[in-house]
Amino acid sequence: MANVRFFASAREAAGRGRDELPGSTVDEVLRSACDRYGQAFTDVLTTCRVWVNGESVPEHTPVGPDDEVAVLPPVSGGATESARPTVGPGRLFPGRLIPGQLIPGPMIQETP
Q: Which CATH superfamily is domain 2-72 in?
């Protein structure tokens, strides 16, 4: 079992912000989530980034009861259907962000 946190549209599709799901790897946990929450969640997952304990990891990464799997949809905007990454063979979800990678988007400036 792993602790899973859902954010934004993933939370809406799952109907909750957290859950404990069975699986010994990230891939197994996400497959359990798809089985539990259905097609709407599965569709959202294809656009998400998945992190374990704050780090981007491959889907074969082992997880346990002390691990937190975070499902993070795009923050704003999003890809058009033709620009959306596709799920490759043997992969449940597309590539993830690399720690330290800059994310394109509007800059937020603080005013004095």
A: Beta-grasp domain (3.10.20.30)
Parse the chain into domains and list their residue ranges: 2-72
Partnered with residue 6 across adjacent β-strands are: 71
pLDDT digits (tens, 9 = 90+) for 51-99: 999 998 889 999 999 999 999 998 755 454 444 444 444 445 544 444 4
| Pairwise CA distance, residues 109 & 93, whole Å | 33
What tokens does 70 get?
A: 């975070």
Q: What is the pTM of this model?
A: 0.67
